[in-house]
Every structure is written in C-alpha cells, then in structure tokens.
Write a structure and sequence with these properties.
Blueprint: E1 7-9, E2 15-19, E3 24-29, E4 43-46, H1 47-51, H2 55-69, E5 78-83, H3 89-102, E6 107-111, H4 118-127, E7 136-140, E8 152-159, H5 167-177, E9 182-187, E10 198-202, E11 205-210, H6 214-223, H7 226-234, E12 240-243, H8 249-260, E13 268-269, H9 296-301, E14 320-324, E15 331-335, E16 338-340, H10 342-351, E17 365-369, H11 375-383, E18 386-390, H12 395-402, E19 417-421, E20 425-428, H13 436-454, H14 460-471, E21 473-484, H15 486-498, E22 507-508, E23 511-518, E24 521-522, E25 529-530, E26 535-539, E27 544-549, E28 557-567, H16 577-592, H17 594-598, E29 605-606
Parallel strand pairs: 2-10, 5-6, 5-7, 6-11, 12-13, 12-14, 17-18, 17-19
Antiparallel strand pairs: 1-2, 3-9, 4-8, 7-8, 10-11, 14-15, 15-16, 19-20, 21-28, 21-29, 22-23, 23-26, 24-25, 26-27, 27-28
Helix pairs in contact: 2-3, 2-5, 7-13, 10-11
The protein binds 1,6-di-O-phosphono-alpha-D-glucopyranose.
C-alpha cells in the first residue's frame, strides 16, 4: 500500500499500519437495475451480471439506505466484510469497503485473504466483540452454486444477531434498488493486502484483518469436548476424510480437524480454496455442493456410488466421511459405505444432544424446514421438546433462536436449540447460520462418547440402525429437475396450488390424501406471515409429497420434489431409500403432470 507512516504491533501480534490518507466521499449518480430481489439466501446472479456497471454498488447502497432508515448504528460502526473466496471476491470486497466508509462505517473487519465461511461470519459478528460489536456483515457468496467468471456470484447481508436479514428488511432493500438515484463511495483508498492479519489505520477509518479461523474455532471449543474427539481420532481403527470441495472450508478443516483434533495430515482433502471451486476439470465440475451426486470424490472414497449403493474399493475405506459446500454452511455425513440423509442426521443429533457439552443444560427447542422429513418430530415428541416447522431458508430459524432474548423479551425461550434442513444444513444457536463443521463435530462428539461408553468403535451406521429400531425410519429422497423453463415450472406450481384442498380423500394406489395445501408460515415470534412456501400432499399413512421451486438458482428454474415414507420400528428398516420412495415419485408425477409441463422424464439430481 501507499505510505506506511509506522508499522508497530497491534497488541495482539498484528502490525498496525498507519496511512494518513484522505478519503474523499463522492456521490455517484446511478439508475435502478431490475431484478435485484434476493432469493432463499441473498442476491445471486451470474458473476458477469455482478461485474457489470453499478450492479453491486446499487445493491450495497440499497442495503445501507435501508439500514440508515431503520436506525441501525452505521455511523462510526463496525462492519464485517468477507466471502467464500469465489471468483471476483477480492474486487467485490474493495467495492463494499469503499461504499461502507462513504456511508459512515468506521471500522471494517475482514478475514485473512478476504475469506470467512458463512458460519464463521456469523460467529465473528456475534462473538468477536471486544467493544467494537459489529452492526452486521456482508457475505460475498452464492453458497453451493459454482463460482467463476461464467458461473455465479452472490451477496448476503447479515444483521447484528449474526443471522440473515429477515424478509421485512430484504423487502425494504429491494424497494431501494427500485428507486436508487446515487451511491456513495470514497476515493483515495489504497489497495489493502488482506493476506496477513494487520490493522490498517486509514485517516479516521480502520480496516482490521484477522485470522479467518480463530473466532469460529474459539466458539466451537465452547460447544464441544475437543479432548474426547481427540481420543477418537487417535484410535488406530478410526480414519476420517473431510472434503472441502475447494471451497472456503479448507483452512477451517485443516486447522480444526488436523491440527487441533489430531487427524492424520491429508485427512482434509481439496482444502485449498479456489475461485472456481475446482472448475470443470474437478470431479465435481466446480459444484461444491455436498450431496451424493456432486461430492463424487468423497462418495467414491467412502465406497458408494451416486445412488448411495455400496461399491467395491481397492483402498481401505475411512470410518467417517464429510463434505462441505462453497461457503461451508452445508454438510454431508457418511460412514464406511453408508450415507445418512440430512433429515436423519438432524434427528439423530437431536436424539443424542445430551452427549454434546453445548446442550448440557438440556435441549429446549428444535426445528426443521417444512420439506425436511418428520424424523426429528418423533424424537422431539418422545423427549418432550418443542419442535417447529418453518419454510425453507435459514432466516426462518433466527427468530426462534432469538425468542426470549433482548430482541423478543416477552416471548418464550427455545434455546438451547438445534435445527436443520434436508438441503444438507444443520446447526444450533451458537451462531445464526447453518454450520457445516459444527455438524461434523457434533457427529464426532456423539461417536466419541458412544465409543467410550461401548469400549469399541461406534460408527454413524451403528447410531442410525439403533435410532431406526427405536423411532422407525422416515425413508426420504429429493428429486431436483434443474434448469427447466421458469414460466412452465411456475404454471405447474399454479396448477397444483389451484387444486388446494380439492384432492382430500382421493386415493392413489393404496394411499389416500389427507391434506393437500400450500404451506404458509405464521412466525410465532414476530407474527409475520410467509405465504406460498410449497405445495404439500400429505397421505393418511403419513407419507408426504412436497413440491417447491428453488430460490437459490440464477437461471431458469429448479423444481424440487421431496418424497417421504415412514416405516415403523417393526417394519423393514434396511431398504434403499430411493427404492422405497419410487412409488411416491410416480404418484407425484401424476399429481403434477411434470413431464408435460417441463418435458423432463427424469430428475437431474436425486439425493
Ligand atoms: C440456502 C438456504 C437454505 C435453503 C437452501 C435451499 O442454502 O440458506 O436454508 O434450504 O438455500 O434453497 P432452495 O431449495 O430454495 O434452493 P445455501 O447453502 O444455498 O445458502
């Protein structure tokens, strides 16, 4: 950078780099850009769209206009700005910093190399503290969507509680994008080296760069008993592979799983973050999306094919496997030749919460998104814990976790709290985002304690078998039809919504429809209503067929079809989930007429 007046230590080992620059605020005229509505999780578009003209600046300024209107303490405040390392992250971060300073922000916090995973951002906003508590943060990420100049970019604003902005704020942001006339920026900001921890004093503004792992690690150490996980790792019969799929999880995985917990070096694979998450030449074609289809490398290492069926392997199969997505909020959990569905994983973590120190005071609440299987409901009922069903989108869990705190002091408290989604998201109230490495540690903690109790290695498969014998099994699968014509997909949804309630009592094979409706959520904490959250067909035997359109894609539409069939403990628990739900899929195709609407006769991804 420009002139370094002095280079002294910041007290915590970081150099303080002073630069007496004068940052001049400029008002840049702009015009509204259509289509800046955030989806399920932030604004996601093709990278080239974000790179064009004022696209990013308009959105960021619209966020600031909203925050200022809402009396958020932006003036002199602290803001976190980082991302998942995807293509154009460094440039976007510089643009955001300039707009933030021009709008009055006093201090910016960045992870090293501009990296912070989504859960780590939440941890930093909530827990880094020391007198400069941030009012919020920007996460530059399109999560599991591929990165690269020809792929996707995204941005999301998280609030002071560390969670995604609620719908009432994002709608105001959207309103601003429709009437914006200018954005503010500063001139004279030197190019900052974000590669090492440092404190930059730039006139009266400060940019602090800190190790991207430290805050998240500190928080996770409060949640888990690292020593007992270390003992599991040290067992000669335990091996682990954690695939970061070239996303942002790499530095976290290496530091926590290998260095802190003692897994063998090399246990963390694809652990160098890449701007294209490995791109077309990677086995997963840059889709850093941990599921059976995309996490092909890990799935094969664990002795499975993409249908989750056992395959032979010439190499020893690790006892535990996990994968993360681009921004490291998602997780997939496997054991040797065994895949656990995210819905089951959630239920089993809730069932074994007493083995996790974070919940030593006793779990008070849990929740799942609507399409997630009802496996967790059965556990919650047996244990007398409150269980909520919310729409798809992590933001809907936030209010439940904040209920009974300073945000909603008159409402009941549901924390300690665990929640999760079928879309490979699991987490708890230590942060306000789903947390991939938290889920991995939760499983390792459960296995470590059960192994200690049993005196022999207990696997994910052992826990699952025991669980199903107790609660029965919610056989589950999701079919995705990606890249279909948006208008046609919307017509199909409209047709099904239009029949709401009319199919009750109708039989399909040996199943009779009990409920057919469009899911609507009445938030018990802030009273807000979210309509149109998916078409549901619920049968008398408890089987469910759910249809929704994905809200995270950037082109066309993705139809998601969720299928669930419950088998009691006395039934056949050892079948393959895809075979069990197949007859339900046939009924779903009949109910939706999907083939004639979309022209598709098979899904792109089944997981
Ligand atoms: C986001 C949300 C999740 C949601 C998922 C799937 O995940 O944070 O809560 O379940 O999208 O959404 P859709 O079905 O609309 O594509 P992520 O990992 O992409 O941030």
């Amino acid at each position: 950078m420009g002139q370094i007046a002095s280079n002294i230590c910041g007290g915590d080992g970081r150099p303080v780099i002073k630069n007496d620059v004068t940052l001049t605020i400029k008002n840049v005229p702009t015009e509204p850009i259509a289509g800046q509505a955030p989806g399920t999780s932030g604004l996601r578009k093709k990278t080239k769209v974000f790179m064009e003209g004022n696209y990013l600046a308009n959105y960021v300024q619209s966020v600031f206009n909203t925050l200022i209107e809402e009396n958020v303490p932006v003036q002199g405040g602290t803001l976190v700005v980082s991302g998942d390392g995807r293509y154009w992250n460094p440039e976007a971060i510089q643009i955001i910093i300039k707009i933030a300073f021009a709008n009055g922000v006093g201090r910016i916090w960045c992870g090293t190399d501009g990296l912070l995973s989504t859960p780590a951002t939440s941890a930093v906003i909530r827990a880094r503290g020391y007198g400069f508590e941030p009012f919020g943060g920007f996460i530059c990420s399109a999560s599991h969507n591929p990165g690269g100049i020809n792929d996707d970019f995204g941005i999301k604003y998280n609030c002071e509680n560390g969670g995604p902005a609620p719908e009432k704020l994002t709608s105001k942001m959207l309103e601003w994008t429709g009437k914006i006339k200018e954005y503010k920026s500063v001139e004279g900001l030197p190019n900052l080296d974000l590669s090492k921890p440092a404190i930059y004093k730039l006139g009266d503004k400060i940019v602090e760069v800190f190790d991207c792992v430290e805050d998240h690690l500190k928080l996770l150490k409060q949640c888990f008993d690292f020593n007992s996980i270390k003992r599991l790792m040290a067992r000669p019969d335990f091996t682990i592979v954690y695939d970061s799929m070239s996303g942002v999880q790499g530095p976290y995985a290496r530091r926590i799983i290998e260095q802190e917990l003692g897994a063998k070096p090399g246990s963390c694979t694809n652990a160098d973050p890449k701007p294209d998450f490995g791109g077309p030449s990677s086995a997963w074609h840059g889709h850093a999306d941990p599921n059976l289809t995309y996490a092909v490398e890990l799935v094969a290492t664990m002795g499975l094919n993409k249908e989750g069926q056992k395959i032979s392997s010439s190499k020893p199969i690790p006892s535990f496997g996990a994968a993360a997505d681009g921004d490291a909020d998602r997780n997939m959990i496997l054991s040797s030749q065994f895949f656990i569905s995210p819905s089951d994983s959630l239920a089993m973590i809730v069932d074994n919460a007493d083995l996790i120190p974070q919940f030593r005071a006793g779990l008070k609440g849990c929740a799942r998104s609507m399409p997630t299987s009802g496996a967790v409901d059965l556990v919650a009922k047996a244990k007398g814990i409150e269980c909520f069903e919310v729409p798809t989108g992590w933001k809907f869990f936030g209010n439940l976790m904040d209920s009974g705190t300073q945000y909603f002091p008159d409402k009941p408290q549901y924390t300690p709290f665990i929640c999760g989604e079928e879309s490979f998201g699991t987490g708890a109230d230590h942060v306000r985002e789903k947390d991939g490495i938290w889920a991995v540690l939760a499983w390792l903690q459960i296995l470590a304690k059960k192994t200690e109790q049993a005196g022999k290695l207990v696997s994910v498969e052992d826990v699952a078998n025991q669980h199903w014998k107790t609660y029965g099994r919610n056989y589950y699968a999701r079919y995705d039809y990606e890249g279909v014509d948006k208008a046609k997909a919307e017509d199909m949804m409209k047709m099904m919504s239009g029949k709401s309630g009319q199919l009750v009592g109708k039989s399909y094979g040996n199943m009779k429809i009990k409920i057919n409706d469009v899911f609507e959520y009445n938030d018990p904490v802030d009273g807000s209503v979210s309509k149109n959250q998916g078409v549901r067909f619920i049968f008398e035997d408890g089987s469910r067929i759910i249809f929704r359109l994905s809200g995270t894609g950037v082109a066309g539409a993705t139809v998601r079809l969720y299928l669930e069939k419950y088998t009691p403990p006395t039934g056949n628990l050892g079948m393959h989930q895809f075979d069990v739900v197949k007859p339900l899929a046939d009924v779903a195709l009949q109910l939706s007429n999907l083939k004639s609407y979309t022209g598709r006769d098979k899904p792109t991804v089944i997981t």
